[in-house]
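hey so u asked for the seq, here:
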Amino acid sequence: MPEVIKKRIPIVIVAIIFIVLLGIFVWKSNIKEEGFDWSSVENLVLSEEEKVKYEEVAVKLEQNNHDPEALISLARLRNWGGDPEGAIKLYLEALEIRPIDTLILNNLGDVYYSIGEYEKSEGMYLEIIKNNPKWINAYRDLANIYRYKLKDKASQLPEILLKGLEIDPESAEDFYAMLAIHYQNIDDRENAIKYYEKVLEINPDNTGVNSALQELKGIKF
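ran it, structure tokens below
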């Protein structure tokens, strides 16, 4: 082997080691970035039991940054402790590992909603419906967003609910009830009555729907 090449080998090895270490540092920084030390419970409002749990899970995450269960657990605790932004960062890290995980998407949707990021919350529930169209809670949460927060998008809800009904006819009572409430909310009396009646065809003992239906039918114009 030429002498020049022999001299270069140690330099190349050092360069490779440096690149690897730099990559690890950058990767870890995605989670433990400046201003966000997830290993600390400082400023979190947690019980002593929750603090112990947090520290246990933080140790697991230190040992394996790719542990989605640890990321989810810490995210929950940070959210409960009053740090929704920190929870979101941890949930997003978990989502990179499990991009279509219903639990992660649902929790993200809830946290985004709690801090007023309604369009991001909507996006999480739509993603659940796309990947897990039988997850009825995602439709309920989406219906609430359109009813109370993103009213300008409410017109797209019936199509989403009817597609869900097609895929999951076993949940017809839930879908019909959401459709009825939607139409009642936009003062479409005819469609509200139509879907409340469909609910009662499935479950005649639904007292809430019976009351809503009688009230709608009693309206005089």
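Confidence is low (pLDDT under 50) at residues 23-31. Residues 29 and 36 are 10 Å apart (CA to CA).
lmk if thats what u needed
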